[in-house]
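User: Teach me something about this protein's shape.
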Amino acid sequence: MSKGKLIVFEGIDGSGKSTQIELLFQQIGTWVDKSRTFSSTLLGSKVEDILKKVKPSKEVEALLFAAARLECYRNVIKPCLNVGSTVICDRYLMDAYAYSCNSMTGVSDDYIYKINMNYRSPDITFLLDMDPRLSLDRLDRPKDHYEKEDFLKSVREQYLIMVASKELYFKDQNWIVLDGSQPVDVIQSLVWEEVEKIL
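Assistant: First, the predicted structure itself:
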């Protein structure tokens, strides 16, 4: 059996990733799994709980997220891909750079690269891009410390820098940038148009 396809959705909080992942999951229908990089394993859930109570340095925070990401990759994502399942992932590797290496956090991309090595490149990475003011208006739950307009603006800027970059870290992502403020059905149609090419 051939290896499965890895489809990744990236973007700031409130950009519509979860909605599009669920729609695509239903549309593909068979041999497909969903993964949330930071809550698909017990370790990932514990890391999220820890960071609600403790505010470590940005480098330590990145290490904790790297541990959760690696646990998810080895125990959830990679086994599914190896048996031929398609995996739709809510954030994967590029969010490590977007959330840690932006202008407000300032962690070096070399550091993030060293603690997040040996991951398979996605077949497609969708970036749902939108203005943080609009994305925050969509969130109908209490906002965490990442969900501030200034911070999300810097994260968005970092994502767009990565899309344009020719550096080793980012060149194999097969980025598809979509305007996340468009109607849900319009985005769904654009996503499916690209996914059909690889299935």
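Now, about its shape. Strands lie at 6-10, 32-36, 86-90, 124-129, 175-179. Helices lie at 17-28, 42-53, 58-82, 94-100, 109-114, 132-138, 149-164, 184-195. If you'd like, I can walk through any region in more detail.
User: That's plenty for now, thanks!
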